[in-house]
Amino acid sequence: MLIETRAYARAGLLGNPSDGFFGKTLSITVRNFGASVSLWQSPELHIEQQEADANTFRSIFHLCDTVGQIGYNGGIPLIKAAIRKFTLYCGDQGIRLPNRNFTIRYSSSIPRQVGLSGSSAIIVATMRALMQFYEVDIPLEYLPTLVLQAETEELGITAGLQDRVIQCYEGCVYMDFAKELVQSRGYGEYQRINPAQLPKLYLAYNTDMSKVSGKVHNDVRARFDRGEPLVHETLQSIANLATLGKEAIERRDYETLHELVNQNFDFRTRIYNIHPVNIQMIETARKLGASASFTGSGGSIIGLYRDDEMLNRLFVELRKLNARVIKPYVM
Are residues 239 and 318 in the same domain? Predict the structure, then answer.
């Protein structure tokens, strides 16, 4: 029996980055890119190595370029973490797994290190394959929490729930991560939005982030934990934009949505250091009349555009900044 599963890239439209601070977000899946997992029964448990997992290089320069493009680790640690967390979850739930092994293979077309959540997509796809193989039903509302735990508890990755929620639910989702909900039951309140109500959206991502130091120092978490008023007020303002954006989409008020997307990024600059390359992408898109904000932590932007003429200008001008523009396929 061959099991094949998939999870897609995601883009935060509004509310970034309040999801890690008990905020609210509005996100979409970007089906233009995805992570795929194939799994089949075998005598031993085997994870197939892919190009991203290789440790042989043509030269030191090849190694440097590879690390710059895909990071220090490939997908195997993500799959190991997903398998371990799935197994522990089943044990905690009193679910007895049959004694059978499998071979698992993954692939991904999601651009790395540009804020489109390629890592969590691999874990989501792996979880889905394991659920099918072992015939285990994990409640949809809790699955994103399990995926997040695989990253934070198993791999020590700093992350929030937003990416995992939209990749598990798919489409367009409004999320409320109210502290009392998350702490009491492990997940927030998630509401699907009809993607047909969305306006014309573009997404642009930097194709040369290997030459950009995306690791600009930010200490927002420490400042938040210390109770710094500016940080708390700004993150609350960003969270409120998600609610306003949901309401704007529902009444198809795209002019308001356009302004909200811009405000999201502008609020972010109050408390975060932004890399000059990312600022240049935002400013270029806005000069052409489009709105622009980060899809995630940086490296890619999203916004509304008016018509095909504006979209073509975005293609041309952002290409000069080594950025590729696409129309996100959300359905």
Answer: yes
Decide: residue 76, CB within 10 A, 0-12 exposed, 13-18 middle, 19+ buried: middle
Q: Nearest 5°: phi and psi at 293?
A: -155, 170
Q: Measuring CA to CA, which residue among 74, 77, 126 is closest to residue 105?
A: 126
Contacts of 205 (CB under 8 A, 6+ apart): 111, 114, 115, 116, 295, 299, 300, 301, 323, 324
Let me know whether 109 and 20 are in one domain: yes
Domain end marker among 139, 159, 194? 194
Q: Which domain holds residue 207?
A: 196-326
* Judgement on whether residues 93 and 226 belong to the same structural domain of the protein: no
Crossing angle of helices 254-268 and 229-250, rounded to 10°: 160
Domain shared by 178 and 255, yes or no:
no
Measured N-to-C along each axis, helices 308-319 and 276-287 cross at an angle, to the nearest 10 degrees, of: 150
Active-site positions read 163
Q: Phi, psi at residue 169, to the nearest 5°?
A: -85, -40
Whose tokens are 């952002």? That residue is 318
pTM for the whole structure: 0.93
User: Does 210 fall in a domain?
Assistant: yes
Query: For the segment 206-263, what is each residue's pLDDT rounded down to a tens digit?
Result: 988 544 434 455 789 999 999 999 999 999 999 999 999 999 999 999 999 999 999 9
* C-alpha to C-alpha distance for 152 and 254, rounded to whole angstroms: 36
Strands 46-47 and 189-193: unpaired
Number of structural domains, the chain? Answer: 2
